[in-house]
Amino acid sequence: MTTLSAFRGFTNGLPEQDQVMPVLFIGHGSPMNGIEDTEFSRRWTQMAKEITKPKAVLVVSAHWFTKGTKITAMDFPKTIHDFGGFPQELFDVQYPAPGNPALAKETAGLLHSAHVELDHDWGLDHGAWTIIRHMYPEADIPVLQLSIDYTKGPQYHYDLAKELSALRKKGVLIIGSGNMVHNLRMVAWDRLNDNEYGYDWAKNINGKFKALIQDGDHKPLINYSTLGRDAMLAIPTPEHYLPLMYTLGVKGTKDNISFFNDKAVGGSLTMTSVKIG
Questions:
Q1: 59 with 175: CB under 8 angstroms?
Q2: Residue 143's beta-bridge partner residues?
Q3: For labelling, which of 55, 148, 197, 206 has a CA lying 20 to 30 Å from the CA of 233?
Q4: Which CATH class is domain 19-276?
């Protein structure tokens, strides 16, 4: 069992380093990706091998929607099974990564535009652990979660994210976890395992999102309601889309853009993911 003493070194703060960490937006999809060997989970594993091992991971997950902004600040965040109707095997998963209370406090201090509450009740929800257990299966890297304030719009979250940029210089991997296109009400459940099946509107708007991201044209992405009917079908509620704002908001002027897991599933979902840097 991992003990707190094993991670005491993380409480002394993280020094700046020469290399700037990349930033990821990851389409997490079904919680079953957390335990299954899929093309998506395999790519998460491969991504961890392609980038520098981070000093810590900060996740903005679609599944922690709060009034106000919170950050996990406990020594060891619990594994949250925030779903229903799945096999017991999924509920049995524990991901015992440490937290980093000192980094949580430092991060809260960076966010001048928001009062950030240090939270000791949440943990790692499936938007975080289903991905990270494939990337870092040893659970030897501190993981924190930053909540999404549901009272605020995309521009607020995009601007708030900019204040997190300094973390990239300290070896922190920032991950936005959601889905660009996420309309559960229109899912073709009989085609959920077909990783090539997307409705025309879903593929069209996903392509538009990608083009805007590639071009660095963030304004239409922030004001996505101006992109028409397809965008509103893709984002009937904002929680899975807003993590993208935290990824785009910390993009530097020299960062390269690449896409991975660029597939549609179930007609009305896309797993399209973005690496910045």
A1: yes
A2: 57
A3: 148
A4: alpha beta
